[in-house]
TrEMBL record, chain A:
<keyword id="KW-0325">Glycoprotein</keyword>
<dbReference type="Pfam" id="PF03381">
    <property type="entry name" value="CDC50"/>
</dbReference>
<dbReference type="GO" id="GO:0005794">
    <property type="term" value="C:Golgi apparatus"/>
</dbReference>
<dbReference type="GO" id="GO:0045332">
    <property type="term" value="P:phospholipid translocation"/>
</dbReference>
<feature type="transmembrane region" description="Helical">
    <location>
        <begin position="315"/>
        <end position="339"/>
    </location>
</feature>
<keyword id="KW-0472">Membrane</keyword>
<dbReference type="GO" id="GO:0005783">
    <property type="term" value="C:endoplasmic reticulum"/>
</dbReference>
<dbReference type="InterPro" id="IPR005045">
    <property type="entry name" value="CDC50/LEM3_fam"/>
</dbReference>
<feature type="transmembrane region" description="Helical">
    <location>
        <begin position="37"/>
        <end position="63"/>
    </location>
</feature>
Automatic annotation (TrEMBL), chain B:
<feature type="transmembrane region" description="Helical">
    <location>
        <begin position="168"/>
        <end position="191"/>
    </location>
</feature>
<dbReference type="GO" id="GO:0045332">
    <property type="term" value="P:phospholipid translocation"/>
</dbReference>
<dbReference type="InterPro" id="IPR023298">
    <property type="entry name" value="ATPase_P-typ_TM_dom_sf"/>
</dbReference>
<keyword id="KW-0472">Membrane</keyword>
<feature type="transmembrane region" description="Helical">
    <location>
        <begin position="211"/>
        <end position="232"/>
    </location>
</feature>
<keyword id="KW-0460">Magnesium</keyword>
<dbReference type="Pfam" id="PF16212">
    <property type="entry name" value="PhoLip_ATPase_C"/>
</dbReference>
<feature type="domain" description="P-type ATPase C-terminal">
    <location>
        <begin position="41"/>
        <end position="238"/>
    </location>
</feature>
<dbReference type="GO" id="GO:0005886">
    <property type="term" value="C:plasma membrane"/>
</dbReference>
Amino acid sequence: MKNKTSCLPQEAGARPSRCPDNSAFKQQRLPAWKPQLTIATVLSSFFLTGAFCLSVGICLILSANSIREFQINYSDKCSECSKLRENTSNWNKECHCSVNFTLKEDMLGDVFMYYGLQNFYQNHRRYVISRSDAQLLGQNVNIEKSYCAPFTTYQNGTPMAPCGAIANSMFNDTIDLFYNLNSSVVQVPLLKTGNSWWTDKNVKFRNPKSDNLSSAFAGTARPPYWQKPVYLLDEEDERNNGYVNDDFIIWMRVSAFATFRNLYRRVERVKQFVNGLPAGNYTFHISYNFPVTKFKGRKHVILSTVVWSGGSNPFLGIAYVVTGTAATLMGFVITAIHLKLRKKKTYFQK
Amino acid sequence: AARLQEYAGEGLRTLVLAYKDLEESYYEDWAERLRRAALGSAQTVYDQYFITLYNIVYTSLPVLAMGVFDQDVPEQRSMEYPKLYEPGQLNLLFNKREFFICIAQGIYTSVLMFFIPYGVFADATRDDGAQLADYQSFAVTVATSLVIVVSVQIGLDTGFWTAINHFFIWGSLAAYFAILFAMHSDGLFQMFPNQFRFVGNAQNTLAQPTVWLTIALTTVVCIMPVVAFRFLKLDLKPELSDTVRYTQLVRKKQKTQHRCMRRVGRAGSRRSGYAFSHQEGFGELIMSGKNMRLSSL
């Protein structure tokens, strides 16, 4: 038991007091707000929350329903190409595939084209770390020290640019969209830039500095699964070439789940496509390179419009409606319990 | 008596710390299990710095402030109603049952905190058309909702808001966002590109309405049952300290003078509210009004 000194004021000459100061802080006399759960606050918060959640939920469901989406699985449809790609010695053989489809309704507004992968685990622990962000900044780093292994250097010592498993497995199918107008076929104009985050394009990925992009990457080689080196990813647009290529940047932003979609192209709103994609017959011409059959994966192309709340997933809207209903119900239940079962709230008289 | 107070104060603090830590560890546990079941590899969702900072910075200070400053009844009342000391002695506030209730709540919250964002992100797009469900955006969403839910929970638990409690709780939230934006900033990335790989994430992800709606939903769903249970418990089985507090409220409303009990010259005694005891058996007696006189307590 600690020695409790009395905290009465000491006479002169006595031992110094061990008591803490008589300040508001040390004597726990600080002013404070003491909220209590009263029936009014609780009920009003439940009903308000319920109303808010219900209204937000309904808004979300309505906006999700207003989205037009079209999805087609082309790895199943392009079975000859799938079979060809199962054998890796066919890597330099091209394979083209055409998939026809019909849009029953116009897709008004901005239309986005995605490629979707299923059963591809970009979130695998060792896959996610298999990259060298310093190299992707254009710095001259020793990639042997990074987590890129085994995709770091070739046997003859040439380093890979970019290194790592994520870069190596980059999606390399080419998808074009054609519109059948009367008897002629029009290629739908697609935008390949402006699809990645500004910070990714301008901060996270930078090309090594040099006058000429190919000399900047001198002394390096393409990753083993790529068909062309990184400085030939987009020969038409210098600002989309090398590490800052939009498709590359989007692929490097790994997905959280095994089934995901990445933005591939946007429909350019010109000519007949000023308002979006009109209804009609369309064809995808796909240059099929990415093999998925070995791991039972699937590939899709998705065309979709967007709204402020994102895509067509109704989960959030439904969850909000459910929560709103639950909150309102709970409010009623609490009211009922309170009225029937409570004990009379007493307090101490003087 | 002082030792009793310290013990009970510790008990409460441990309880709250347990909840806060359980949140995170159960979340990690569930996330690992889901991943192993679905993927076959154990990848954590959070960025390593978040995990460290969560325990040290974001959630430790409000808990400490609560443990130190909490007063569920003011000190004058503690002298009037010595029965309030009983539950501390009877180990009623911090025992296995309470601990397991805490664990159950932690499991519930951590399950929701993973599966609600998972359901939203499984097929999500940003408002500019790009993909929302990338790894880092998912991590930022879940981490933010975790910090917010735990802060709201400690706010609910804090019955006595001194200025310091306010500062610590709001300050923790502010610190979380400040550190988040700092770690995802360009400057740190350019200095250490391999360490701060989340560059650009905070500003890009937290600008999405879907992300905030997800965080709000998770918060509502995690907190609502807690409020309901607490209120019902207060209403149906009020404890002596609750009655004492209600008395305060009533007296304040009536504006009667009730400083009957001057503080005895024990200026040195430190008060921790959770020294006061709660036992339902005597609550009946008191509530029936038979035992109202000061002297018979």
